[in-house]
Amino acid sequence: MPNRWTGNQHGRGITMRLTLTEFLTLDGVTQGPGSPEEDTSDGFSQGGWFVPYLDEDFIQIAANWLGEADALLFGSRTYVNFARDWPRITDPDDPFSEKMNGLPKFVASHSLAQAGWAPTTILSGDVPAQVAELKRQPGRELQIHGSARLAQSLLGAELIDELRLVIAPVVVGNGRRLFPAGGAPAGLRLVRNETTPGGLAILVFESAGLPTYGTYEPGSSRG
């Protein structure tokens, strides 16, 4: 268990929930939402697709989500990008920078030797087991932002409690997806849905274990 975790007084006696916030296109792509240069791996050339749909309504929703965080969890690619950008934001009126820079951070990585965006702890080895241990600590939310590859592995390990999917009304055709072919099946329960003036669809799901299945019979009543 990483020794930097100190918990949060607001969450004493309550174990952490692991939440995922992910930006997606209508065809499920998560890669490079913020700018054309954000992530060009595998020849991806359509980065920045999320930006045209940002509006004040969503910024407030996202700020409210971040306000529930007691720690942040990242994959290595997202961590490197965030560690480069967020410390540069010093505007006291920015709704995110104080929390992003000040909260305890954990990065799942087998390649990073050090992490300079303090306070950060590197998780290596059996990452799902270490994340499960983090979830047993007192607090409110341990939040994943982006980090689709990490999210896929933790979804497969049934560790994510809530998915906050923010879907932009755009189809890009290729790129890394949150739910790739061959991924682990999962059942979800819709707990919130809304749209913003800019056209974003926000779907919030809770984990519901494995999927359930049935056979539709025409003329039958669900009662």
Notes on the structure:
The protein is an alpha/beta fold and 223 residues long. The protein has an eight-stranded mixed sheet. The protein is globular and about 60 Å long. About 2% of the residues have low confidence.
Short description:
The chain is α/β, with parallel strands linked by helices.
What is the topology?
Elements: E1 17-24, H1 56-66, E2 69-75, H2 76-85, H3 97-102, E3 105-108, E4 120-123, H4 127-135, E5 141-145, H5 148-156, E6 162-167, E7 188-195, E8 201-207
Parallel strand pairs: 1-5, 1-6, 2-3, 2-5, 3-4
Antiparallel strand pairs: 6-8, 7-8
Descriptors:
alpha/beta, eight-stranded mixed β-sheet, single chain, 20% helix, 223 residues
**Low-pLDDT residue spans:** 8-12
Strand/helix succession: EHEHHEEHEHEEE
Rg over CA atoms: 18 Å
Helix content: 10-25%
Major sheet strand order: 4-3-2-5-1-6-8-7
Report the portion of residues in β strands: 15-25%
Please tally the helical runs, counting DSSP H or I stretches of 4 or more residues: 5
Mean pLDDT: 91
Backbone shape:
globular
Structural class: alpha/beta
